């Protein structure tokens, strides 16, 4: 090969790498966020990061997938995380330990109960704060959100400050909560099943997850801590839970929240829109919410 041809090939390789860095995201998979040597082989207490490849000092969205607190899979949230990273927002898709769900599969008979799930989320937040400089995101602009059961955990960890404090984190760490299709009053959630068409799920689902701590797991019990801006979105299947929580916020006089109801979509359809649609107005709501609150924080400095 001639020197000129060789140089041309090298140039193509360099340009190819630049194009890749401009059009893709940087991913770090299956990062262990707890220090206990006894769980080094655990597959649940881990997170994966999707980072914008063209900048640093970006905001971070800590995202918790849905799955009834029992069959959550952080890997299923990666398509959503990649789409967000391409818009300049880093995403940590966080896994957590799981509860039994024999109502879904008799094999899912073992697991943990509240507050173990949310303790894992607190551990993940501590790890992310401690490693912000390693991955280039801004620790002053950390948002949290989730879908379905992940929405409940996101709301609770912001309002019940004990979990952040237990990890020596600033109780005002989170700059926004993004809650999609969640439930926020677990006592009401329990009664809904008990008095509905599937009363057995009150025990095999709700009590299996929360035991006798329904009240303690309810975001509605910690309204005195309302401060962080909230984005509430719901599909049509579970809309009543979000409407109930929005009414509670209104009655409390809290005005730093926005609601959006995707009445045209089912529970699964809204999740698929967030994850797979090339254009999703509901994903755009998240992006707008994050960047608007960053600007508001800058104005307040």
Can you tell me about this structure?
Helix 7 (186-194) packs antiparallel against helix 8 (201-210). This protein is an alpha/beta fold and 301 residues long. The radius of gyration is 20 Å and the shape is globular. The protein has helices spanning 3-23, 78-85, 116-130, 132-135, 149-159, 162-166, 186-194, 201-210, 239-252, 267-276, 281-300; strands at residues 25-32, 46-52, 58-64, 90-94, 137-147, 174-180, 230-235, 257-262. The chain has 11 helices and 8 strands. Strand 3 (58-64), helix 2 (78-85) and strand 4 (90-94) form a beta-alpha-beta unit. It has an 8-stranded mixed beta sheet with strand order 1-2-4-3-5-6-7-8, sandwiched between helices. The protein has one domain: Rossmann fold. 42% of the residues lie in helices and 19% in strands. The longest helix has 21 residues, at 3-23.
- Placed side by side, the strands forming the largest sheet appear as 1-2-4-3-5-6-7-8
Q: Ends: how far apart? A: 60 Å
**What is the oligomeric state here?**
single chain
CATH superfamily placement: Alpha/Beta hydrolase fold, catalytic domain
**What does the average pLDDT come to?**
91
Question: How are helices and strands ordered from N to C?
Answer: HEEEHEHHEHHEHHEHEHH
Radius of gyration equals: 20 Å
CATH fold title: Rossmann fold
Structural class comes to alpha/beta
Shape: globular
Tally the beta strands.
8
Largest sheet: 8 strands, mixed
Which runs of at least 5 residues are low in confidence (pLDDT < 50)? 1-22
The number of helices is 11
- Beta-strand share of residues: 15-25%
User: Can you tell me the CATH class?
Assistant: Alpha Beta
Q: How many independent structural domains? A: 1
Helix content: 40-55%
CATH architecture descriptor name: 3-Layer(aba) Sandwich
């Amino acid at each position: 090969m001639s020197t000129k041809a060789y140089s041309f090939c090298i140039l193509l390789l360099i340009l190819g790498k630049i194009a890749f860095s401009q059009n893709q995201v940087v991913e770090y998979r299956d990062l262990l966020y707890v220090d206990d040597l006894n769980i080094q082989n655990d597959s649940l207490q881990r997170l994966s990061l999707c980072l914008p490849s063209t900048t640093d000092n970006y905001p971070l969205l800590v995202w918790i997938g849905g799955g009834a607190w029992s069959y959550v899979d952080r890997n299923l949230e990666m398509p959503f995380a990649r789409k967000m990273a391409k818009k300049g927002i880093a995403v940590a898709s966080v896994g957590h330990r799981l509860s039994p769900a024999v109502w879904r599969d008799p094999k899912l008979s073992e697991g943990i109960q509240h507050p173990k799930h949310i303790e894992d989320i607190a551990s993940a937040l501590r790890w992310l704060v401690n490693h912000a400089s390693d991955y280039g995101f801004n620790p002053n602009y950390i948002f949290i959100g989730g879908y379905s059961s992940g929405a409940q955990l996101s709301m609770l960890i912001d309002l019940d400050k004990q979990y952040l404090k237990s990890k020596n984190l600033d109780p005002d760490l989170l700059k926004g909560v993004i809650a999609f299709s969640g439930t926020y009053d677990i006592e009401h959630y329990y009664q809904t099943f008990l008095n509905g068409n599937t009363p057995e799920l009150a025990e095999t689902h709700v009590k299996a997850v929360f035991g006798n701590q329904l009240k303690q797991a309810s975001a509605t019990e910690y309204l005195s801590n309302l401060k962080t801006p909230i984005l509430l979105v719901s599909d049509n299947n579970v809309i009543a839970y979000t409407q109930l929580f929005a009414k509670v916020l209104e009655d409390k006089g809290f005005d730093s929240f926005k609601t959006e109801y995707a009445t045209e979509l089912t529970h699964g359809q809204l999740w698929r829109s967030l994850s797979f649609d090339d254009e999703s107005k509901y994903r755009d709501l998240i992006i707008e919410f994050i960047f608007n609150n960053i600007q508001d924080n800058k104005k307040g400095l």
